[in-house]
Design brief:
Keywords: ANK repeat, Hydrolase, Repeat. Belongs to the glutaminase family. It catalyses: L-glutamine + H2O = L-glutamate + NH4(+). The chain is mainly alpha-helical. Among the domains are: 126 residues, Recoverin, domain 1 (Orthogonal Bundle); 100 residues, Probable Glutaminase Ybgj, Chain: A, domain 2 (Orthogonal Bundle). Helices cover 48% and strands 7% of the residues. The chain contains 16 helices and seven strands. A hairpin with a 5-residue loop joins β4 and β5. α7 packs antiparallel against α8. The two termini are 13 Å apart.
Length: 327
C-alpha cells in the first residue's frame, strides 16, 4: 500500500465552490491583480503601490521580448527588479524567493533546486550564519543563481501561471477548509483492520496546480494510504509505458453501471474500465510484467515519486498484510 502526503480538495455545495473559479486568461489580460501588487509591494518594501505595479508590468513586458536583439536578458531584468536601491550592484535573493512564494512556488520546488544550491554556496562564502532573507549577492552572483531556473522565474514574473491571483485563491480555499472542518458525516473504512484504526478527525487539504503552485492546510504532513486512488496513477503509468491502444485491447473505457468491486466483463469480454477493481487488476498485471516482482515494485515506486515531484512516497506494509489477510 503506497503512502503519500495528502492531495485532496475539500468539497462543499456548488454555490460556495463558485468562489474558487478563476479565469486566468482574463486576469492575465488585465495585468496584475491589486492583491498581487500589494503583496509584492510589501516584499519589496515599496509603499508606492502604483510604482510597483508599473515596475511589475515593465518587467513582464520586457520578459516577453527578451529574444529581440539588443534587449536585456531575462537575468538582467530579474536583477533590476530585485536590486537594492541603497547598495550598488547587489540584489536580494530573499525577496525573489518571497515573491515566488507569494505566487505559490516554494523553495523546495524541484525546478528551483540548482538555484537554491548556488544560493547556499554563495551565502556560505559571505558568512556562516547568513540569513537567506537578508543576504545580498552581487549582480553576477545573483544572475548565476537564477540562471538554471530562469524560465520558471520568468513565468512567475510575467504573471503567466494558471492561477495568477494566488493569494486570493488560497484565502478562499482556507475559508472552505475551515467551514468543512467540523463536518462529521461518513466513517473510516472498516473492511480492513488497519484502515479501521485510522483517526477520523484528521483533516488536511493539499493543492498543486498544473504549474506547480502549492498550498497545504491542516494535517497535510500526515501520510495516508492512496488505496483506490492508485488506479488512476497506475493507468497513467501503464498507458504512458505501453500506449493507450495496447492497454485498451485488454480493458475498456466505458462506465460499468455496477459497484466498483463487482467482478464482471463487458460485451467484449473485457473489464469495463481501468478504475473498477476488475480493470485495475488487468492494468496492474501489465505493469512491466516481463520483470521480476522486486523490479516491478521498484519501477512503480519510482514512478510514484516522479508524480509526487520528488516528495515523500512510502509503502505501508502493515496495511498490505492486513488487506491481504482480510480482503
Amino acid at each position: 500500500m503506497y503512502s503519500v502526503l495528502p492531495s485532496t480538495l475539500a468539497t462543499r455545495p456548488s454555490n460556495s465552490m463558485e468562489t474558487l473559479m478563476v479565469d486566468s486568461n482574463e486576469a492575465n489580460k488585465q495585468g496584475y491583480a491589486p492583491s498581487v501588487v500589494e503583496d509584492v509591494s510589501k516584499i519589496l518594501k515599496n509603499s508606492r503601490v502604483a510604482s510597483v505595479a508599473r515596475i511589475l508590468n515593465d518587467t513582464a513586458n520586457g520578459l516577453k521580448h527578451v529574444y529581440q536583439l539588443s534587449h536585456p536578458t531575462q537575468e538582467d531584468l530579474t536583477y533590476d527588479l530585485f536590486k537594492c536601491r541603497k547598495r550598488e550592484n547587489e540584489a536580494s535573493m530573499g525577496k525573489l524567493l518571497s515573491v515566488l512564494r507569494s505566487f505559490g512556488i516554494r523553495e523546495d520546488d524541484p525546478r528551483l533546486k540548482q538555484t537554491i544550491e548556488k544560493m547556499r554556496e554563495f551565502e556560505s562564502q559571505i558568512e556562516d550564519d547568513c540569513d537567506t532573507r537578508h543576504c545580498l549577492l552581487t549582480k553576477e552572483q545573483f544572475k548565476d543563481c537564477i540562471r538554471p531556473s530562469i524560465n520558471l522565474i520568468s513565468q512567475v514574473l510575467r504573471n503567466d501561471l494558471i492561477i495568477p491571483s494566488w493569494g486570493e485563491f488560497t484565502a478562499k480555499v482556507k475559508q472552505i477548509f475551515e467551514e468543512c472542518r467540523n463536518v462529521r458525516e461518513g466513517k473510516v473504512a472498516s473492511y480492513i483492520p488497519q484502515l479501521a484504526r485510522q483517526d477520523p478527525n484528521k483533516w488536511g487539504v493539499s493543492i498543486c496546480t498544473i504549474d506547480g503552485q502549492r498550498v497545504n492546510f491542516g494535517d497535510a504532513k500526515q501520510p495516508f494510504c492512496v488505496q483506490s486512488v492508485s488506479k488512476a496513477f497506475n493507468y497513467a503509468i501503464v498507458a504512458s509505458d505501453l500506449g493507450a491502444d495496447f492497454v485498451h485491447s485488454y480493458v475498456g473505457h466505458e462506465p460499468s453501471g455496477r459497484l466498483f468491486n463487482e467482478i464482471c466483463l463487458d460485451c467484449n469480454g473485457k473489464p469495463h474500465n481501468p478504475l473498477i477493481n476488475a480493470g485495475a487488476i488487468i492494468v496492474t498485471s501489465l505493469l512491466k510484467n516481463h520483470l521480476k516482482m522486486a523490479d516491478r515494485y521498484d519501477f512503480a515506486l519510482n514512478e510514484y515519486k516522479k508524480l509526487a515531484g520528488g516528495g515523500y512516497v512510502g509503502f505501508n506494509n502493515a496495511t498490505f498484510l492486513s488487506e491481504r489477510d482480510t480482503a
